[in-house]
Specification:
The longest helix is centred in the middle third of the chain and has 16 residues, at 148-163. The protein has two domains: 21-76, DNA polymerase, domain 1, CATH 1.10.150; 81-366, Aldolase class I (TIM Barrel, Alpha-Beta Barrel), CATH 3.20.20.70. It is built from ten helices and twelve strands. It has a ten-stranded mixed beta sheet with strand order 1-2-3-4-7-8-9-10-11-12, with helices on one face. It is elongated, with a radius of gyration of 21 Å. With 367 residues, the chain is α/β, with parallel strands linked by helices. Helices cover 31% and strands 18% of the residues. It binds S-adenosyl-L-homocysteine.
Length: 367
């Protein structure tokens, strides 16, 4: 029986993706390598190729016996995803990839290069079960959870493109990661956490990214937020609040009927206290829906005095949406009122609109 308050998330039954090196822990990798008849120390050599040199061609791994490279590729490095579409804008510094997974399911990731950093926005599920009415992904429902490796490999694909100079601006690396693509990361908790471990473990175990550069965004699955706080990782937590009152939030973020604004914020403050990390509050400004001055004041009152920052996102209208972004003057007034309460707030840049790569537009399965 699930514990009280625990979410029962039923994932549709589907075939599981093939096992990949990025699914395995360091110990499991060693065991697999020994199964192939290789000494255990080869596992670290393989990981150095994959995560250190970002080489995805086992046939070129000259430190591995030539006759074993093919088998290694077939058994531990199956092709998990192929890019069926790559779209770019902003002179090639914003690139969206549409990935086809082993079972034909489509997911998307976006790479955004800024002068001083590269951020990737990745997916944690194919589709999403949270059903937020303003979000394109939410309209199609949940297809399935992504495996650990399907999450990790979205990042490695971007890292390889940057390392090989394929992204405008020259050779680079991925600095920041946001779980703001398709899916609700806290509803695929174990695979997301395993992926984060692979991405933050130092080479040879993993990619060696800084946990401080990783943001996990959630609708507010309270038990999972508390669990995340206990992981001992300095991740950034983002809460998709979008309304300060339960009446409106029940309609914008339907899981609110299960976890109320006050419970979600309590969990957020627990996260901030436990980790010392500033929590991000995501708030999509929707014209005449959640952008009234009184809602800004109410939000300011709820957040004042906490370790928090508000990210206001101009709504990206999804096809057929009856909603649109707030008027510029209402947006400015919203920011002003939050700041009056001493709450830091900024309006997020929405890159990639032209390629349907901006917040809430990722809906590969629908195209
Ligand atoms: N399921 C997670 C992460 C994916 S969405 C979550 O909800 O947090 C990432 C962010 O984009 C969330 O804050 C989400 O509410 C926001 N978003 C979704 N659709 C949007 C849209 N059409 N316009 C602006 N922001 C949107």
């Amino acid at each position: 029986m699930p514990a009280p308050g625990e979410l029962i998330m039923v994932e549709p039954k589907r075939p599981k993706p093939p096992i990949h090196w990025s699914d395995l822990s360091v110990e499991e990798r060693k065991a697999r390598v020994i199964d192939l008849g290789l000494p255990g120390f080869r596992a670290d050599q393989i990981s150095r190729q994959w995560y250190g040199r970002l080489s995805d061609k086992p046939e070129t791994w000259t430190d591995i016996p030539a006759e074993l490279r093919g088998e290694l590729q077939a058994t531990l490095f199956p092709e998990l995803m192929s890019s069926i579409k790559s779209l770019d804008c902003d002179n090639g510094t914003t690139v969206k990839q549409v990935w086809k997974l082993f079972d034909g399911v489509l997911v998307e990731s976006v790479l955004m290069r800024y002068p001083e950093r590269v951020t990737m926005c990745i997916s944690s599920q194919a589709g999403c079960g949270m059903n937020c009415p303003f979000c394109a992904t939410g309209q199609g429902g949940l297809t399935r959870n992504l495996s650990t490796a399907e999450i990790v490999e979205q990042v490695l694909a971007g890292a390889r493109d940057l390392a090989n100079g394929k992204i405008a601006g020259g050779v680079g690396r991925v600095n920041n990661l946001v779980f703001m693509g398709m899916g609700e990361p806290m509803a695929n908790y174990n695979n997301v956490m395993n992926a984060i471990r692979r991405l933050t473990d130092d080479p040879p175990a993993g990619l060696g990214m800084s946990a401080r550069g990783i943001t996990v965004s959630t609708v507010g699955l309270v038990p999972r937020i508390r669990q995340l706080a206990e992981e001992g990782l300095p991740l950034t937590l983002a809460i998709s609040l979008h309304a300060p009152d339960d009446e409106l939030r029940d309609t914008l973020v339907p899981i609110n009927t299960r976890f109320k604004v006050s419970e979600v914020l309590d969990a957020a403050w627990y996260y901030a206290e436990t980790t010392g990390r500033r929590v991000s509050i995501e708030y999509a400004l929707i014209k005449d829906i959640n952008d009234q001055g009184w809602r800004a004041d109410l939000l300011g009152e709820l957040l004042a005095g906490h370790l928090v920052h508000v990210n206001l996102i101009p709504l990206n209208p999804t096809p057929g949406s009856k909603w649109t972004a707030s008027r510029p003057e209402d947006e400015r007034e919203f920011v002003r009122r939050l700041r009056n309460h001493g709450v830091p707030a900024t309006v997020r840049d929405t890159r990639g609109r032209e390629i349907d790569g901006a917040c809430g537009q990722l809906a590969a399965s629908a195209k």
